[in-house]
Write a structure and sequence with these properties.
The protein is an all-alpha fold. 74% of the residues lie in helices and 0% in strands. The protein contains nine helices and no strands. The two termini are 21 Å apart. The relative contact order is 0.19.
């Protein structure tokens, strides 16, 4: 069972900044523990590194009193954003009215059936969309979380976590 410390120790010296950042971004911030660990786990799923994902899940289980809803929402967000980020990135890059007016026809019911709360789920989707590079989705989710009462500091902290999780996944693979 991978722990965060074990994963951090597996990062070579060339990735020292990532190793240090991985610890720093997961410490107390403007995010609630549920937001912080939802973003971290969702980002680890999106980064597609099994060791990192296992470590984030294990750390979330230790840090949260009720981890299962957070973990399930993070997993659902990663799957939905894997689909949506490809689809909407295509529509955004092409910028043709003919595609923009087509109905996506993609099931996304889980977006309305979150186990935690809508704003936290959207924050996880925002972080994952940053990893996946979908500008349209990033803009959409950022708008929703700000309108839902989160601050720009909270958005910033979530994106910092996503960026470091992604860097750690790259470092572990190199």
């Amino acid at each position: 069972m991978a722990s965060l410390e074990v994963v951090r120790s597996e990062l070579a010296d060339v990735h020292k900044d990532t190793r240090l950042n991985l610890q720093a971004v997961l410490e107390a911030s403007s995010l609630t523990p549920e937001q912080r660990w939802g973003v971290a786990v969702g980002s680890a799923y999106a980064a597609r590194n099994d060791r990192l994902k296992e470590a984030m899940i294990n750390e979330a289980k230790k840090a949260l009193t009720t981890p299962e809803p957070v973990l399930e929402d993070a997993r659902a967000a990663a799957s939905l954003m894997a689909m949506n980020n490809v689809y909407y990135r295509f529509r955004y890059m092409i910028r043709k009215e003919s595609y923009a007016t087509k109905r996506p026809g993609l099931r996304m019911n889980r977006l309305a059936q979150v186990l935690t709360n809508k704003v936290d789920f959207e924050l996880v989707c925002l972080a994952i969309s940053c990893i996946n590079g979908c500008e349209a989705c990033v803009q959409s989710h950022e708008k929703v979380v700000l309108e839902g009462g989160l601050s720009e500091d909270q958005v910033h902290d979530a994106v910092r976590i996503a960026s470091v999780i992604h860097a750690a996944a790259v470092g572990l693979e190199s």
